[in-house]
Design brief:
The complex is a heterodimer of chains A (about 200) and B (about 240). Chain A is built from 8 helices and 2 strands. Helix content of chain A is about 70%, strand content about 5%. Chain A is globular and about 55 Å long. Chain A has a two-stranded antiparallel ribbon. By secondary structure, chain A is mostly helical. In chain A, helix 5 (about 120-140) runs antiparallel to helix 7. Chain B has 5 helices and 9 strands; from the N terminus they run ααβαββαββαββββ. In chain B, the strands form 2 sheets. In chain B, strands 2, 3, 6, 7 and 8 form a 5-stranded antiparallel β-sheet that branches. In chain B, strands 1-9-4-5 form a 4-stranded mixed β-sheet. In chain B, a hairpin with a 2-residue loop joins strand 6 and strand 7 (about 190). Chain B is globular and about 55 Å long. Chain B starts with a helix and ends in a 19-residue tail after the last strand. In chain B, about 35% of the residues are buried. Classes of the chains: A mainly alpha (about 200), B alpha+beta (about 240). The interface of A and B includes residues 27 and 57 of A.
């Protein structure tokens, strides 16, 4: 069977750079969280990056450039090329519920790797929304004076802390499901590296 | 007691080195161990880059938000690298603020002389590098007024501070000349209590809390990068809000 291109080169490069940036941002972010926890728990030191607060901050404020610049390239490409419109739309709540139900019963079809099912579309869109929220609330926390208008949109500095935390939690949840689904349908992994998969 | 602090700080620095190395190992699995040093160099270089990016983002006309007095955090948290019981008690009658560096008139200042200068006050949010924040009310002398009065070279790059404990710090001249940057003598309508930095502290709401040194005994103006107590251990130097 012939192999067809399912993931364009730009998508593959930005996907893996984003994965690296998110890994660094989340684990260094947990280090920073531990310095002054918002809730009654801390993250285990073994899953945090940086060794102590200053190290975590150094990683966080270095990796943010990778996350932001790579994300900007991805968003610009997705909108300009029609990638988002082709791959992530249309999306109806009914289709999402149907496909999530099918996935939970183990009957979700992945016949054509070039076409995302509704559950995938919803998850990838939600991931993009989470990342945009994380960057925006993160900028508000980094520059609550210079970007005070942005901080106000999140309920001032303290509000932005909560938005930043919950967007991180949602992001981590989506990534865990994403990685679990890749483990269940392993042929999707080489496709995100070579870009090619067997046609349906 | 000071020796213990130094040992703790040394341990913290070693821990930092190991922690960064662990992160580097996790991310660069398979690479040579010598890359650990390279990763740290990259992180420090990125921090210097972030200093420049923040200096560029800094708008000297942009004011930190001010809050009504009803929003003041009570009790306002004590924060420092040693417990509150160890805060040095300064004798205000003997106190002198020493001046050094690129300043024309380096006569030391008494507290009475500082109080005789025009006073301003602000209710602003102090944001700690750890993440928490608290709103407080500080009063004192605008740093830009003071620098003008003593004939400081405001084209110099840095204003540095030495404190009665081991603390020291420095800020960029543009932030030093910001209208909300003050040499604070008062807290919440009265004199600064020792735990908040009696008799003199910097209050700069456009920077993180650790850039607001307490118990200041000397102020200097320089073009040589003075660093800071925490900055020399890894916190970002500019740390602007």
């Amino acid at each position: 069977m012939a192999k067809v291109l399912v993931h364009p080169l730009t998508v593959r490069i930005t996907h893996w750079l984003n994965a690296l940036a998110v890994l660094m941002m989340v684990t260094s972010g947990w280090q920073i969280y531990n310095a002054s926890p918002l809730f009654d728990f801390s993250f285990p030191a073994s899953v945090t990056l940086g060794g102590w607060l200053a190290g975590g901050l150094q990683w966080h404020f270095a990796a943010m450039w990778l996350l932001g610049l790579n994300g900007a390239v991805y968003l610009a490409y997705g909108m300009a090329s029609g990638h988002f419109r082709r791959k992530l739309l249309p999306l109806s709540p009914r289709a999402v519920l149907r496909d999530i139900g099918a996935a939970l019963r183990g009957r979700l079809s992945h016949d054509d790797p070039a076409v995302y099912n509704a559950a995938q579309r919803a998850a990838y869109l939600a991931l993009i929304v989470c990342l945009v929220l994380l960057v925006a609330s993160g900028l508000a926390l980094w520059k609550p004076v210079q970007l005070h208008w942005l901080a106000l949109a999140f309920g001032d500095y303290e509000g932005a802390r909560y938005v930043h935390f919950f967007a991180m939690a949602a992001l981590v949840l989506i990534v865990l499901v994403h990685v679990a689904m890749v483990a269940l349908v392993p042929r999707t992994l080489p496709a995100m590296i070579s870009g090619r998969a067997r046609a349906a | 007691m000071k020796k213990l602090e130094r040992v703790e700080n040394l341990e913290r620095r070693l821990f930092l080195r190991q922690g960064l190395s662990l992160g580097a190992l996790a991310l660069l699995a398979g690479c040579e161990l010598t890359d650990r040093e390279a990763v740290q160099r990259v992180l420090w270089a990125m921090s210097r880059w972030n200093d420049r990016a923040q200096a560029w983002l800094f708008d000297s006309r942009r004011l930190a938000p001010e809050y009504p007095e009803s929003r003041i955090t009570r009790p306002f948290p004590y924060n420092g690298y040693y417990p509150e019981a160890r805060v040095p008690l300064i004798d205000g009658t003997k106190y002198r603020l020493e001046l050094a560096g690129k300043i024309r008139d380096r006569k030391p200042w008494t507290l009475a002389e500082l109080y005789a200068l025009p006073q301003v006050s602000q209710v602003t949010r102090l944001i700690c590098v750890e993440g928490w924040s608290a709103i407080g009310k500080w009063g004192g002398v605008r740093l830009s007024d003071f620098l003008q009065r003593v004939g400081a070279d405001t084209t110099a790059k840095y204003v540095g501070f030495q404190c009665a404990d081991d603390y020291y710090g420095s800020i960029d001249m543009a932030s030093a000349l910001h209208p909300q940057t003050i040499l604070a003598l008062d807290w919440d309508g009265g004199r600064l209590p020792p735990r908040y930095g009696y008799p003199l502290r910097l209050r700069i709401p456009t920077k993180l809390g650790f850039k607001n040194p307490k118990l200041i005994t000397a102020l200097f103006v320089t073009d040589q990068y003075p660093g800071g107590y925490w900055e020399d251990q890894g916190y970002n130097w500019f740390s602007g809000s």
